[in-house]
Specification:
Number of strands: 16
Mean pLDDT: 94
Shape: globular
Largest sheet: 8 strands, mixed
Low-confidence stretches: 324-330
CATH topology of the largest domain: Rossmann fold
Number of domains: 2
CATH architecture of the largest domain: 3-Layer(aba) Sandwich
Helix content: 25-40%
CATH class of the largest domain: Alpha Beta
Amino acid sequence: MSDDRLLYLAEADVRTAGLPMRALVEALADGFRDLGEGRAEVPAKLGVHPSAASFFHAMAALWTPGAAVAVKWVGSFPGNRERGQPSISAVLVLSDPSDGRPLAVMDGRWLTVRRTAACSALSARFLARPGARSLGVLGCGLQARAHVEAFREVLPLHRVRAFDRHPERATAFAEDVAREHGVEASAHDSVREMVEGMDVVLTAGAIARLPDPPIAAGWLAPGSFACSVDYVSPWSLAALAEMDLVCTDDRTQLEAARRSGPVGQLPSVHADLAELVTGQKPGRTAAAQRTLACNLGLALADVVAAVLVYRRAREAGYGMSASDSGTAPT
């Protein structure tokens, strides 16, 4: 992946270069296999918290088979939604691990959305029933839209129910999903209607410690797969206690996160994605199991996605290049 020019990719460039969902899911499977077999390195996240509801994380990873190392600086500000601004912002620096040269600086917001959904789809391969046909969605933002696309790469979904605390967002989401994916989609007025009877339930709302999480015990049907990309914020303790199998993207990361935030109430973790992909741990073993993937977001996934974007952008000539041949001061 050698090139003498430093490539700058704005969000429009990243979107134009593209991250095809099927290719991304397969690349992530390779990446997590490499992690499980010792060919990748992912240190713990570094974080600062401007407020109780917002944070910045620095996320770094080395992916040796992909000949890439990267760090992403990502911020989450849920209150931005009320001001009509993106709740997530991110920038990623991709470098060559053989000589340390920076290869690209790219916007990481859209990349983060895509790789998060792709990781959920990879989890679904091991935790959802193969014939799962229905999806319930809490939180109808960018993550929800990307997840419908990602789940349809691995599951034969034909029906989607949506709930959002802003009803107009759920209605628009359902209309868009029906038009773009050719499935039955409907907006609902209650969380319970969105959860009950669904084969897959995605929660993609704000990350917060809620005094009264809305998803109650008994709502998730036996055999269903729950996927949380919001640190299980809307799941009650009683609902989580019903899970037969709890998995995550990285066991060490989740255990560290238990010290603060809503993931502290999770039951013990059965496996992470590296263990599932390498076969060190089994996924679903019975049709009636309630399974849960609580993926917190891993830097390895950012590196894998960034490599795909970088290669596609180089091949197509997207972005702005600059000379990087000078000597930087130390």
